Amino acid sequence: MVKVELKNVTKRFGEVIASDSVNLVINDGEFFTFLGPSGCGKTTTMRMIAGLEFPSEGKVYYDDKDVTSLPSFKRNTGMVFQNYALWPHMKVSENVAYGLEVRKVPKEEIAERVEKVLDLVGLSGMGDRFPNQLSGGQQQRVALARVLVIEPDILLLDEPLSNLDAKLRVEMREEIKDIQRKLGITTIYVTHDQEEAMAISDRIAIQNYGKIRQVGTPQEIYNKPDNLFIATFIGKGALLEGNVTSIGENISVDIGEGVLEGHNTGNKSLEEGDHAAVVLRPENFFLKALDEPYNVLDGLIEWSSFIGAVTEVKILIGDESLLIDAPAGREYVSGESLKVYIPKAKTVILPWMELD
User: Fold this and answer.
1) For residue 50, how far is the Cα from the chain centroid?
2) What gap in Å lies between CA 12 and CA 22, rounded to an integer?
3) Widest pairwise Cα distance in the chain
4) Which parts of the chain register pLDDT below 70?
5) Sequence-separated (6 or more) residues with CB below 8 Å from residue 151
6) Which of 295, 190, 309 is nearest to 238 (CA)?
7) CATH match for 4-223 among 2.60.40.1500, 3.40.50.970, 3.40.1190.20, 3.40.50.300
8) CATH node for 236-351
9) CB 271 within 8 A of CB 308
10) Assessment of whether the complete model's pTM goes beyond 0.85
C-alpha cells in the first residue's frame, strides 16, 4: 500500500482558493477522512491526490515519490463517486470487469477477479443483473467492486453514501470499513456528515475555506477541539460567552449567570480579561451533584423531546439556550426551573472567534 504526503498544496480557480497550503501525511493502510462544510475544499484536495486536478502550488508524494504532475491513470488509484457512474447497458459483471479489460488482463483472470470482488462486497450471484435491477445500496457496492477489482494502491471515496437513506448509510459505512480492514488499503474519504466521519475514520482532517483546521483521531477532534469552529462544527455543543477571570489549574470564565471552570483544549492561549467561549456537550450533563469537581447551572426549561434512550431538554441560562441529554424516565415541564451539573474536566473553554 501507499503513504500519501501533501506539501504546501494550493489549488486556485481564478480568484477562488479551493485548497490553501495543505500539509498532510496520510499513513499506509490508514482510513483518512476529509470533513467539512460544503465548498470547504475537501473534494478538490482529494482530486489532487487522485491526479484529477493538479496543484497551483506544492507537491503530492506517494511513498516519497513526487507524483504531482503524474496523470490519474498512472497513479494506480481507484475512486468511487457520489453518483455511482455505472453503465446502464452493461451487466454488473461487465461494469466491474471494465477496468481490467482496459488493462488487457487475460479473460480467465478477469472472470476470477470479478467473482472474487463481487463476493467481497456481498453481491455474489448478481453478476448477470443490470444496474436498474439493483437497489441503491447494491449499485454502490458495484461501484466499489469496480474500483477494488483493479487492486489500487489507494482507494478514494467522494461522498459515496449521500444518495442512500439513513439506515442504508449506516450499513454501507460499516461494510466499507470492514472491507478496508480486510484489504489493508490506504483509504481517503470525503464527507460533510460528522457522524459518518467519526464512525468510519482512523483520523480526520477538518477543512474550512480551503485550510486544514485540525487533524486527529475522532476522539481527539471531539474532545480536544483546537478552536471554536471545530468545537461547534463537531457534535451538538452548546455555547456560552464570557470573560476570563482567572487562570490556574482550571480557567474561570464569568458568563454573567455565574462562573464556570474548565480547560483550554485549543491551540491558542488565554489570559485574564480575554473574551472566551465555554463549550458544553449535551451528553456530559447530570441532574445531580457529582463525585468529581463540577460546574452547576440553574435554568428554565424551554422545551423537551423524548428520543428514546434520553430526553433532549433545552434550558434557558440567562439569554442563552442550552441543550442537554437528560434521563428519559421523568417529565420536563416548560417553564419549570432545572439545575444541571457538568464535570469541570468536560467543560471546554476556548478563545472567542466570530463564526461564519
Assistant:
1) 19
2) 13
3) 75
4) 355-356
5) none
6) 295
7) 3.40.50.300
8) 2.40.50.140
9) no
10) yes
